[in-house]
Amino acid sequence: MLLSLPPAFWGLIAVCVFAAFTQPQFLSLPFLMILLRQAAPLGIVALGQTFVVANRSLDLSVGATIAFVNLIVSHAMWNGYPPAVPIAVALSAGLFIGLVNGVLVTVLRASAVVVTLGTAAIITGIGFLYTGGAPGSSMADVIKWLGRGRIGVVPVSGLIWLGFAIVAYLLMRRLTIGRYIFAAGDNPSAATYSGIPVNRTLLVSHVLSGLFAASGGLLLSGLVGVGSLNLGADYVLSSIAAVILGGAVFGGGAGGAVGTVLGAALLVMVLNLLTVFGVDQSGKLIVQGLVIAVAAIIYQQGRRG
Questions:
Q1: Where are the transmembrane segments (predicted)?
Q2: Where are the domains of the chain?
Q3: Are 48 and 116 in contact (CB under 8 A)?
Q4: pTM
């Protein structure tokens, strides 16, 4: 029973115990609120990734979606418009990207890896054309407030992450679409024979992933405050890692919103703790890969047991 809990649950306990003995300030309330603000964009993107992973698919275009959203909301063309306009355009772009991925994967029966990699390349190219290779620096104060603002001591982005987590939990555990996603992910053939619209469910999963990626990109853009052609590039691996740490098993129809939230929190805490100890980027990548591999092995053994 205990081994069936997401690896991120035990990982968070281990990291907190280690930090308590080595870097006590790491667990102070101000520092935890900083970590919460940093984790929110990744947490939302990872929640969207959870839908497709639970449905035996994958979305490798989330990084390009984040970058494209950033280029949209930081462009000078929105000067004079209400902030709701670039926000609506950015979220609509995420929905459209997810829809294109879903249509290509379901209608053409194409590999999700190939499709979403191709989509990412196309989005990146469109972003370069849109900006002329020079990302803008104009961004509405409202968007910056979403990424940096606080209500009391709590980051606004953390509250938004909580809202998305609740929505994801309800979709996956309380509504019919969630039952369809897990059934199709667990056994697509059996789900088809049971009358479950497998293709439509997969399409919806990709649309949700696109929307969540755009939403996370919006918060990350507000946190950074300027346009960047490479923003979100590391979120592809990190979002998948958070889902795996949350207990998802590729091809097994497993995973969930709560586990993914814990997985994203664990990743951010580990990476920041490594920064405190002076570990460089190469070392962080190695540690991140080891954490994912060990967590997946332990969780698989626990499920078999």
A1: 29-48, 60-78, 84-105, 112-131, 151-172, 207-229, 235-254, 285-302
A2: 2-11+30-304
A3: no
A4: 0.93
Q: In whole angstroms, give the CA distance from residue 3 to residue 304.
A: 10
| DSSP bridge pairs for 151 | 154
b/e sequence 93-107, b meaning 16+ C-beta within 10 Å? bbeebbbbbbbbbbe
Residue type, 47: L
Inter-residue contact 56 to 253 (CB < 8 Å): yes
| Span 61-69, average pLDDT | 96
Beta strands in the chain (DSSP E): 150-151, 154-155
pLDDT at 121 over 90: yes
Type of residue at 272: N
Cα angle for residues 220, 239, 95 (degrees, 5° grid): 65
Per-residue pLDDT tens for 171-224?
998 899 999 998 888 888 888 888 899 999 999 999 999 999 999 999 999 999
**Token output for 92:** 């609509």
In contact, 242 and 42? CB cutoff 8 Å: yes
* CATH 1.10.3470, domain 2-11+30-304, yes or no: yes
Structure tokens at 105: 């994967």
DSSP category for residue 6: -
Distance separating alpha carbons of residues 173 and 189, to the nearest angstrom: 22
What is the share, in percent, of the chain residues with pLDDT greater than 70? 93
